[in-house]
Design a protein that fits this description.
Thrombin, subunit H, globular, five-stranded antiparallel beta sheet, 17 strands, single chain, 166 residues, mainly beta
Length: 166
């Protein structure tokens, strides 16, 4: 599988892997290291996450898609075109590189909150969320990692370059 662009945990035994050069999701066994299932898609992908028995996938040239394990696919939101995504239950968290912001939406595409702070977060890239809904984002240009609270209103710089902040 060339050019791997994303990975997410499915369960204790399986991870899902996507590639920007293939139109599918590979389910890989952690025990054997081999694909145990391939879910075909109609698009090349960059980022993905797994929540509530479905994958949220960031196609290379299209809107974010929900791909269910039964192979049903639907668009999320009307204009959600992003590369990095994380999830917690019905909430999806993604970065908007062009506006240096982080957005939290539900699976229907309704915006729950938006975080923007050009000083502390510049060039957002990778994103993850913990079980409490705190969001962690890499600032590529600001060379840091920030934590955003569950409301999207407060944040803290956790890491700058090679220096821990706590």
């Amino acid at each position: 599988m060339p050019s791997i662009h994303g990975v997410t945990c499915v369960d204790n035994d399986t991870v899902a892997v996507i590639s920007a050069s293939e139109r599918n999701i590979h389910l890989v066994s952690l025990k054997s290291g081999k694909a145990v299932r391939i879910i075909k898609t109609n698009f090349f992908s960059h980022g993905l996450t797994f929540t509530e028995e479905s994958f949220i996938v960031c196609p290379a040239q299209d809107q974010m898609q929900e791909v269910r394990l039964d192979n049903n696919t639907r668009c999320i939101g009307s204009n959600v075109l992003e590369t990095y995504v994380a999830s917690l239950g019905n909430a999806l968290f993604f970065v908007k590189k062009d506006t240096h912001s982080v957005v939290c939406i539900n699976k229907n595409g309704d915006i729950l909150w938006t975080f923007t702070n050009d000083t502390d977060l510049s060039g957002p890239r990778c994103i993850t969320v913990d079980e409490h809904g705190n969001t962690f984002v890499v600032g590529y240009n600001s060379n840091n990692v920030i934590a955003i609270d569950t409301s999207g209103k407060q944040h803290k710089i956790l890491f700058i370059r090679n220096r821990l902040m706590w």
